Amino acid sequence: MSKIVLIGANHAGIAAANTILDSYPENEVVIIDKNTNLSYLGCGTALWVGRHIDSYEHLFYTNKEAFEEKGARILMETTVESIDFDNKLIHATRANGEKFEESYDKVILATGSVPIAPNIKGTDLENVQFVKLFQDSQVADKALCDDSIKEVAVIGAGYIGVEMAEAVKRRGKNVRLFDAADTSLNTYYDPWFTEDMDNVLTENGIQTHYGEMVQSFEGKDGKVTDLTTDKGTYKTDLVIMAIGFSPNNSLGKDKLETFNNGAYLVNLKQETSLPDVYAVGDCATIYSNAIEDTTYIALATNAVRSGIVGGHNAAGTPLESIGVQGSNGISIFGYNMVSTGLNLAAAKEAGYEVKYTDFEDLQKPGFIEKNGNVKIRIVYDAKTRRVLGAQMASTEDISMGIHMFSLAIEEKVTIDKLKLLDIFFLPHFNQPYNYITMAALSAE
């Protein structure tokens, strides 16, 4: 029997805790989190704020009581100040200011990530808002209920920024979307796809400001009133910051080996550089099957998988991660985009000599009334012909197809193997010459 302490109770920490409690109930489990709640689905913030869903309650998929019923001891509103890794002691402070120590046999760091806060003037003004925690979403939602707030600026055109821009627009506000890059979503998608998303945004009334660097926020009576970039100044009643996230490594950065971005460096068992210390989720590295190397990909799905692996290993069962592909997706104003692995820019940055094949057609035969155009790109290694990535987009739901490409990357499938892949046909779903088949057949 071991005493296993988990620090952090969101996706990764919860997955690790459930793994231990369900499969190894003989262990003592202690969960520490500084928040008032656990298990908030941050990726659902835009759904609630944009009123796609009626309330936020179902964005919490578990609670403190569920873990206590399994035998865990839960310490919420408790801040871990430091960890003495040599003596296996955690120094923490309760909400009432009481300080205490918690011993452990093994510790799992699931401290997640923190929003990137740019060092620019005015970020401390009222109505300059980050979106990460449930409390952040409450503040943003309350602000959008204020009729005096009419002009909203969203900083960052990644997944969260684009989703929040749509959500704010659905609340009847004027929205400007800013990013230093030349297009939205450029981390996961090539311009052939992102330019379509940019058109969707502008057609739905969002003003896009790409290639603009925010320089400062100005205010009056402590509230933000204007935003200045290198290209102009804009009246702004509310700013939503969605630049991105960095790993929260404050508890171990001086003792544990870290990656180039500060994430805890872990092996396939989620073990850090110190014995009996594990790291899971957004605070840790992950192995990418696309680049065949360690990297950092902050996704909830990756957090859950790493938590499961870390939980088994902390409880004494050796288990290695099989790696990830970084599969992801987004749906904005009914336009759906999904991707996995590497886009062209990422593949070239990783040192690959790459080729790609594109195809575009209707999802279903032309005589089907409810139909939509589909775009697909498959990126592959020019030398080995191994599939490195795939991107798809449509007003139709084509999301399940990306799972096949995820497995193809994991299993090192070549583009040629896909050319005569057995893909079923039925007019209700697809065309006899399936877009996946046609894309593969079109490869050089």
From TrEMBL:
<feature type="domain" description="Pyridine nucleotide-disulphide oxidoreductase dimerisation">
    <location>
        <begin position="334"/>
        <end position="430"/>
    </location>
</feature>
<keyword id="KW-0520">NAD</keyword>
<dbReference type="InterPro" id="IPR004099">
    <property type="entry name" value="Pyr_nucl-diS_OxRdtase_dimer"/>
</dbReference>
<dbReference type="InterPro" id="IPR050260">
    <property type="entry name" value="FAD-bd_OxRdtase"/>
</dbReference>
<comment type="similarity">
    <text>Belongs to the class-III pyridine nucleotide-disulfide oxidoreductase family.</text>
</comment>
<keyword id="KW-0560">Oxidoreductase</keyword>
<keyword id="KW-0676">Redox-active center</keyword>
<protein>
    <recommendedName>
        <fullName>NADH oxidase</fullName>
        <ecNumber>1.6.3.4</ecNumber>
    </recommendedName>
</protein>
<keyword id="KW-0274">FAD</keyword>
<keyword id="KW-0558">Oxidation</keyword>
<dbReference type="GO" id="GO:0016491">
    <property type="term" value="F:oxidoreductase activity"/>
</dbReference>
<keyword id="KW-0285">Flavoprotein</keyword>
<dbReference type="InterPro" id="IPR023753">
    <property type="entry name" value="FAD/NAD-binding_dom"/>
</dbReference>
<feature type="domain" description="FAD/NAD(P)-binding">
    <location>
        <begin position="3"/>
        <end position="307"/>
    </location>
</feature>
<dbReference type="Pfam" id="PF02852">
    <property type="entry name" value="Pyr_redox_dim"/>
</dbReference>
<dbReference type="Pfam" id="PF07992">
    <property type="entry name" value="Pyr_redox_2"/>
</dbReference>
<dbReference type="InterPro" id="IPR016156">
    <property type="entry name" value="FAD/NAD-linked_Rdtase_dimer_sf"/>
</dbReference>
<dbReference type="InterPro" id="IPR058076">
    <property type="entry name" value="NOXase"/>
</dbReference>
<dbReference type="InterPro" id="IPR036188">
    <property type="entry name" value="FAD/NAD-bd_sf"/>
</dbReference>
